[in-house]
Amino acid sequence: MERFTHNVGDNMISYMDQGIGHCVVLIHGFCGNHNYWKYIVPHLVKKNRVLTIDLRGHGESSTPRDSYEIAEMAEDISILLNSLQIDRVTLVGHSLGGYIGLAFAEKHPEKLSGLALVHSTAFPDTEIGKVNRDRGIQKITAEGIVPFVNDLIPKLFSVKNANERKNEIDYVKSIGYKTSDYGAICALDAMKNRPDRNDVLRSLEVPVLLVAGREDQLIPLDRAFSVEKPTINHVVIEDCGHMSMLEQPDQLVDVLLHYLQTITDSKR
């Protein structure tokens, strides 16, 4: 399947563009790429135009020479959408992708028809989380990306699924190995330094979807479901850790299709 590229300043962003209709942008998580969504895209493209983006420093996209913030990763998406003359989108962000979606919503709320955070949170890192980011940076600096990914990926799955889905874990590891050392280091630092964006959730007027895994070892339900209001829907994926798009793709597809239908209905 054809992949496209677009230059954003000095950086090159790689993406796939499939389908027609309302535009849905799928943003992968840390040490991921567009292939995280391999089970999801075929269902969404039946009624939507779907963009799957490789974030800077990840997948086939280039790695900047200097450090960067979450907001700059969000601006990459905004610039790409402008170049494609796409005015409004629904952003679906997994983990790091959700942090980026919130930063996008903070600066460009007028470009959003909806925002979905999948295994993500509007809270900043805890102090323990920040220490762990620094440990990750130190490990990658000393040993490279492969040992870091080997340690990280099994923790993304529920304990039960980690034992039963070795093929999916190996698949996610193979994706993670493609992340550049410096790209991973910069992303860790950007996540560590991100601000609290719960006010963004509170202020958004478009439909918001918050998805959490019942057995997520990284982001528990209380951090995923940080804001309650009529336009925000909370959904728990059962028998699932941090990777519903690979652990429970059928459940996630159903949730996303229902959510996108509500957006379509709201435009009528």
TrEMBL record:
<dbReference type="Pfam" id="PF00561">
    <property type="entry name" value="Abhydrolase_1"/>
</dbReference>
<dbReference type="InterPro" id="IPR000639">
    <property type="entry name" value="Epox_hydrolase-like"/>
</dbReference>
<feature type="domain" description="AB hydrolase-1">
    <location>
        <begin position="24"/>
        <end position="249"/>
    </location>
</feature>
<dbReference type="GO" id="GO:0016020">
    <property type="term" value="C:membrane"/>
</dbReference>
<dbReference type="InterPro" id="IPR000073">
    <property type="entry name" value="AB_hydrolase_1"/>
</dbReference>
<dbReference type="InterPro" id="IPR029058">
    <property type="entry name" value="AB_hydrolase_fold"/>
</dbReference>
<dbReference type="GO" id="GO:0003824">
    <property type="term" value="F:catalytic activity"/>
</dbReference>
<dbReference type="InterPro" id="IPR050266">
    <property type="entry name" value="AB_hydrolase_sf"/>
</dbReference>
<protein>
    <recommendedName>
        <fullName>AB hydrolase-1 domain-containing protein</fullName>
    </recommendedName>
</protein>
